[in-house]
Design brief:
This protein is α+β, with helices and mostly antiparallel strands and about 210 residues long. It is about 40% helix and about 10% strand. The protein is globular. The structure holds flavin mononucleotide.
Length: about 210
Amino acid sequence: MLKNTKESCISVINTRTCCRSFSDKTVADCDIESILKTGQAAPSAKNRQPYFFIVIKNQQCKKEIALAATRGREKQFTNWDQQSAESMIKGKSKMNSNDLVIAEAPVAILLLRDSDPNYSEGISENLEIQEEQGVACVAYSMMIAAQALGLGMAWMCSVLNIPEELEDILTKYGIAWKKTWQPRVILPVGYSKKEKLRKPKRKELKEVSSWIN
Ligand SMILES: Cc1cc2nc3c(=O)[nH]c(=O)nc-3n(C[C@H](O)[C@H](O)[C@H](O)COP(=O)(O)O)c2cc1C
């Protein structure tokens, strides 16, 4: 039993882990809305909120994205030898990219970066970084929200490889694709098939931190 809000918040963060196998139990729309709102609660530079969310529940649409993502991985592994790349794409490698999970989860949230092309500020490279940081904060907030709601969520970066394919697929399903959209991550969400998930170990804190007292 959690004693207080502080403890429960930290516990949710520390126990969250990526879920990559989902049951077919339906997720309530109010839970998805709660996840989206928690995403919006994340910080962004000058509160520009440079993002857009597409919630995909349609099974066929998710399947098409999962297949396009799997094929798109080839672009990511062009420097690999053919055998390693193929086993990764087919999910046989230890480093399996897990893209088919997009189809397995009952819902997938596609997070797009949506920046104002007319906005400029100081060093443009820094603006780019700030916009990306804002989008990443949203994705992580959503993961925490899912965990707090008892749902599992994965982070799939494969959509980075397939912007044109996504535009084609989503347009077919009635989305008015904007030229300012850039896919950043797709977050499959649902109830975990496994009762217990193993969270990968982190480095020792002393390896990744220094203190100046
Ligand atoms: C930028 C980024 C890209 C990621 N891409 C993928 C991915 O494509 N496929 C996948 O299965 N997990 C992906 N992950 C999840 C990481 O593998 C996972 O967060 C990491 O192994 C730590 O595990 P944990 O989140 O369960 O604590 C990604 C995470 C981040 C932040």
